UniProtKB/TrEMBL annotation:
The keyword Oxidoreductase applies. This is Glutamate dehydrogenase. The gene is gdhA. It comes from Candidimonas humi. Belongs to the Glu/Leu/Phe/Val dehydrogenases family. The lineage of its organism: Bacteria, Pseudomonadati, Pseudomonadota, Betaproteobacteria, Burkholderiales. It comes from the Bacteria. One of its GO terms (molecular function) is glutamate dehydrogenase (NADP+) activity.
Length: 434
């Protein structure tokens, strides 16, 4: 860890995993040999490169691109690309590290990776986004391949960006092999991939509640974010009879005591995805309370689903949620909860699921997209949904197996970390030192 003093997010992610693995390693010293833990925190390869492109005004723009190929012990590197001004090596290493364990949890043969750029697609034209994506692929293509590294979307990278990158990949590699997931349906995408992370998170919540003889029916839910994950988490909550009373973006939160309905959700999706609008505009459209610069965690709810970004729920937020009687917190985003906030949930015996377990549905369906591409077949929406549901139930069961405490409480953080670690560690030990 001393090697990376300027990578706080990476330190945080490694610290969290190490803390929950430690007792397990003491009980199972076979996993403490061959420098395994030290090898697992060192990415196998990190590529950083310059991206040069020309904007609509004819000016030359320079961005920084990255791909972190973290671990390939159980399959090709797999993980999204993030386009956001905050992207740096620390954030991508934390995401790639988390992805390695998450992918192991899905039971599918995928290693862990992550990449991205400090490019901000928000205020750019379609033509600028295309030129940027093509310029990025001029370098990235040589590091990818269907059995090497298969990227997907993440924040700022949706179907449009994946399309431009996949198109350029095909051109440069002279191969139609599908080297992205999250592709459009017209060229090898899987049905239900856009919905998968949000739906999967809610399936996981269903399983957590079921162990306590509870259901989503009638539960009040706070969702943060309003992007891909948030939108489909809201949709599945509605389908299962829950009432979603908040939504947010990086500028503020909307509070809606009456809760979302189909019409409001359709308006939010159209506003965010087609018009690139703000939650403030959404609140205005439906006469809702809008809280500029605020997060939604002060609203009393039964369930909280942080679906925006890392470290968006801190200790104070956790205390407020606990004081208001929250029963379940499941992360749709990656590491949205700070370490002390996560500890507070566990100490208060709140059902708390870390993203590597609860948001694994996205990458799971990406894995199913790879399978469909290899088969040259497309599965029906029902078949993908059924498999996603089964995978989320299996991940839940695996977390319970490794995280159940003597008093019956399930520490999902420990459960997910140990279950993911064991699979990766076994594969690494069996393959020797390299
Ligand atoms: P999107 O870009 O579609 O949406 C991100 C949302 O988060 C937007 O509403 C954005 O608001 C909001 N946001 C960004 N920064 C902040 C901030 N500092 N404070 C509050 N809100 C913020 O991304 P996704 O929905 O795809 O991803 C969300 C999270 O889920 C990420 O952590 C991602 O890594 C994780 N994830 C995504 C998966 C997927 O399949 N998409 C799979 C697994 C995890 P604004 O519009 O203002 O920027």
């Amino acid at each position: 860890l001393e090697r990376d003093p300027n990578q706080p997010e990476y330190m945080q992610a490694v610290g969290e995993v190490t803390q929950s693995l430690w007792p397990f390693l003491e009980r199972n010293p076979q996993y403490a040999r061959q420098g395994l833990l030290y090898r697992i925190v060192e990415p196998e390869r990190v590529v950083q490169f310059r991206i040069t492109w020309v904007d609509d005004q004819g000016r030359v723009q320079i961005n920084r691109g990255f791909r972190v190929q973290h671990n390939s012990a159980i399959g090709p590197y797999k993980g999204g690309m993030r386009f956001h001004p905050t992207v740096n090596l620390s954030i991508l290493k934390f995401l790639a590290f988390e992805q390695t364990f998450k992918n192991a949890l899905t039971t599918l043969p995928m290693g862990g990776g992550k990449g991205g750029s400090d490019f901000d697609p928000k205020d750019k034209s379609d033509a600028e986004v295309m030129r940027f994506c093509q310029a990025l692929m001029i370098e990235l293509h040589r590091h990818l391949g269907p059995d090497t590294d298969v990227p997907a979307g993440d924040m700022g990278v949706g179907a449009r960006e994946v399309g431009f990158m996949a198109g350029m990949m095909k051109k440069l590699s002279n191969s139609s092999a599908a080297v992205f997931t999250g592709k459009g349906l017209a060229y090898g995408g899987s049905l239900l991939r856009p919905e998968a992370t949000g739906y999967g998170t809610v399936y996981f919540v269903q399983e957590m509640l079921q162990r306590s003889n509870l259901s989503l029916e009638g539960m009040k839910v706070a969702v943060s974010g309003s992007g891909n994950v948030a939108q489909y988490a809201i949709e599945k909550c509605l389908e299962l009879g829950a009432k979603v009373v908040t939504v947010s973006d990086s500028q503020g939160a909307a509070v809606d005591p009456a809760g979302f309905d189909r019409e409001k959700l359709a308006a939010l999706i159209s506003l965010k995805n087609e018009k690139h609008g703000r939650v403030q505009d959404y609140a205005q459209q439906f006469g809702l309370q809008y809280e500029a610069g605020k997060r939604p965690w002060h609203v009393p709810v039964d369930i909280a689903l942080p679906c925006a970004t890392q470290n968006e729920l801190d200790l104070q937020d956790a205390r407020t949620l606990i004081a208001n009687g929250v029963r379940c917190v499941a992360e749709g985003a990656n590491m949205p909860t700070s370490q002390d906030a996560a500890d507070a949930f566990v100490a208060a015996r709140v059902l708390y699921a870390p993203g590597k377990a609860s948001n694994a549905g996205g990458v799971a369906v990406s894995g199913l997209e790879m399978t469909q591409n290899a088969q040259r077949l497309r599965w029906s929406r029902e078949e993908v949904d059924r498999t996603l549901h089964t995978i989320m139930c299996d991940i839940h069961e695996n977390c319970v197996r490794h995280g159940r405490q003597d008093d019956g409480y399930v520490n999902y953080v420990d459960g997910a970390n140990v279950a993911g670690f064991v699979k990766v560690a076994d594969a690494m030990l069996q393959q020797g030192l390299y």
